[in-house]
């Protein structure tokens, strides 16, 4: 350790109180020890140090005031102390009154002819806190790196072992960034020939147009319907789907190609399920799938014709109540029943087209709460040819309450109330005629009507034989 260059002139004149002031002004802890290392004087520069009281250390060996692992360091400090001022700094720990140990960095030097030792210390709690935070940060980084390595390993394994052909395609340049072994096998080319190649490729002309349209929809809206495309080599049909994600500052397509036929590699759409979709699309009755809130996920051609829509895209995302029932009242009731019973049969209501047409329809529905995703299915049949929505009069009036309730949803309430009055009036007249043996005069008196009024109502409802001569 270097000495002051002008020691004799610079420190001349300092007496004991001044030296003590220098020590206490520069140290957090100062200890005066005898030649055997027993504490004779104690100074604590900070009142908040959680150490034993100064009086408890007096007369106690310095080595007994530190923790077990610090005792060798105290012994080394005492051995290394010398009169020439050559001292070293060592960090030791004092047991605290409460909480963690208090770290202190000490230096010891012998002075005077008696061999006494001066030990000065710097409290290191703030440094220890920073060191602990650094260790915790390093451990957190190691855990994050470990998780990242595990994720990368799992991704790599899934990517390589997937039976589906998967491409990573840069959205800006449309060039393949990465292709898994299934993709290489599907196109029958080596991986170096595929990576870096412009996508799409390997499809027939119709397939190329479909995949191009799919990528454009996904780039614009974030999602798009999967398309069927035929490979140009062997004509195999594959289902092509795509999604979009960001990787660092680049936008990347994740493109999956799944063979349509059920082969050894597996398929999301086996032939039997494809047939089901073809049948549903071609059936004459409307078929609609909605989410649990009633928003349309898909609809077949028959429903689009009833709703006067040109494409399925116009229907997708719209509430089914926009088309079925009265301002969503019927469809809300229907969805509530589906959630309670899982299915509804033959509900009579109306369907309003987008351009104002109205059709009488019959709906059967089923709930699939455990689907992926959960959904509701509706079969909608146009029954306009066997039901009339015009007000019913005369012999066309309903003959029972059950027939009357069937009009709910097809006929306005005011017309139903009017028909109810007519039905009750007709039934009462018929009962009076039966009780009087078709005697019109007696029936009119029983009903409190004039004979002329009774004849008017008989003609209105088509009751009795008005050409008969029996008028009394």
What does this structure look like?
Helix 14 packs across helix 15 (440-447) and helix 15 (440-447) crosses helix 16. The protein has four domains: 7-123, PAS domain (Beta-Lactamase, 2-Layer Sandwich), CATH 3.30.450; 162-259, 2-Layer Sandwich (Beta-Lactamase), CATH 3.30.450.20; 283-382, PAS domain (Beta-Lactamase, 2-Layer Sandwich), CATH 3.30.450.20; 394-461. It has helices spanning 7-10, 16-26, 54-57, 71-80, 125-161, 181-187, 191-194, 205-221, 271-282, 301-306, 312-315, 329-341, 401-405, 413-435, 440-447, 451-461, and strands at residues 29-33, 39-44, 89-94, 102-111, 116-123, 165-170, 176-179, 227-230, 237-247, 250-259, 286-290, 296-299, 343-352, 358-368, 375-382. A five-stranded antiparallel beta sheet has the order 2-1-5-4-3, sandwiched between helices. With 472 residues, the chain is of the alpha+beta class. The chain is elongated, with a radius of gyration of 48 Å. The longest helix is centred in the N-terminal third of the chain and has 37 residues, at 125-161. The N and C termini lie far apart (145 Å). It is 37% helix and 23% strand.
């Amino acid at each position: 350790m270097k000495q002051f260059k002008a020691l004799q002139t610079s420190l001349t004149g300092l007496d004991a109180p001044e030296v003590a002031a220098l020590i206490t002004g520069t140290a957090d802890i100062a200890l005066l020890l005898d030649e055997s290392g027993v504490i004779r004087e104690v100074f604590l520069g900070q009142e908040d140090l959680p150490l034993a009281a100064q009086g408890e250390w007096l007369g106690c060996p310095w080595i007994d005031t530190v923790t077990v692992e610090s005792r060798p360091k105290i012994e080394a400090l005492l051995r290394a102390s010398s009169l020439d001022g050559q001292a070293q700094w060592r960090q030791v720990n004092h047991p605290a009154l409460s909480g963690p140990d208090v770290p202190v960095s000490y230096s010891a030097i012998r002075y005077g002819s008696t061999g006494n030792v001066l030990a000065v210390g710097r409290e290191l709690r703030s440094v220890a806190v920073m060191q602990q935070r650094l260790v915790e940060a390093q451990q957190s980084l190691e855990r994050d790196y470990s998780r990242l390595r595990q994720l990368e390993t799992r991704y790599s394994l899934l990517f390589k072992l997937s039976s589906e052909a998967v491409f990573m395609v840069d959205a800006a340049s449309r060039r393949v960034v990465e292709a898994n072994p299934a993709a290489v096998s599907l196109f029958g080319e080596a991986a170096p020939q595929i990576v870096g190649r412009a996508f799409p490729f390997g499809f027939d002309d119709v397939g190329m147009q479909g995949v191009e349209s799919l990528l454009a929809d996904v780039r614009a809206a974030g999602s798009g319907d999967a398309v069927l495309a035929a490979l140009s080599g062997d004509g195999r049909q594959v289902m092509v789907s795509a999604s979009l994600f960001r990787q660092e500052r680049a936008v990347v397509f994740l493109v999956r190609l799944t063979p349509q036929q059920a082969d050894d590699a597996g398929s999301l759409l086996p032939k039997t399920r494809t047939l089901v979709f073809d049948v549903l699309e071609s059936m004459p009755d409307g078929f609609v799938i909605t989410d649990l809130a009633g928003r349309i996920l898909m609809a077949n051609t028959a429903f689009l014709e009833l709703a006067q829509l040109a494409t399925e895209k116009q229907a997708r995302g719209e509430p089914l109540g926009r088309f079925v029932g009265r301002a969503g009242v019927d469809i809300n009731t229907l969805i509530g029943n589906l959630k309670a019973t899982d299915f509804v049969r033959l509900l009579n209501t109306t369907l309003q087209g987008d351009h104002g047409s109205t059709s009488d329809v019959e709906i059967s529905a089923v709930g699939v709460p455990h689907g992926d995703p959960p959904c509701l299915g509706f079969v909608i049949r146009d029954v306009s040819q066997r039901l009339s929505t015009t007000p019913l009069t005369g012999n066309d009036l309903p003959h029972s309450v059950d027939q009357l309730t069937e009009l709910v949803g097809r006929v306005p309430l005011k017309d139903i109330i009017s028909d109810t009055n007519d039905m009750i009036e007709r039934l009462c007249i018929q009962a009076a005629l039966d009780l009087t043996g078709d005697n019109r005069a007696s029936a009119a008196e029983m009903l409190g009507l004039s004979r002329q009024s009774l004849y008017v109502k008989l003609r209105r409802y088509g009751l009795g034989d008005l050409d008969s001569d029996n008028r009394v």
